[in-house]
Specification:
The protein is α+β, with helices and mostly antiparallel strands and 73 residues long. The chain has one domain. It is 14% helix and 27% strand. The chain contains 1 helix and 5 strands; from the N terminus they run βββββα. A hairpin with a 2-residue loop joins strand 4 and strand 5. The relative contact order is 0.18.
Length: 73
């Protein structure tokens, strides 16, 4: 929505798709998982014929992500 009004998507608009999982801090959850969250976002360009995922080359699996994290230290 824009200013509270729903608009139809048009070519050259960009949006994000942000699926995520958030784990409770409750005692019945194993300690190592309490209170963590994971979200992998995609930036998507609306085209005249459909869409193009702009973020399709970002790391997705654990090994790729951990490798990037090691490089940033």
């Amino acid at each position: 929505s824009i200013d509270g009004l729903w608009v139809e998507l048009e070519a050259n608009m960009v949006l994000t798709v942000e699926p995520g999982i958030y784990i409770s801090k409750q005692a019945d959850v194993p300690k190592k998982y309490r209170g963590i969250g994971v979200r992998i976002e995609d930036d998507v360009l609306v085209t005249k014929d459909g869409h193009k995922i702009l973020s399709n080359k970002i790391p997705r699996n654990i090994d790729e992500i951990e490798n990037i994290m090691r490089q940033s230290i």
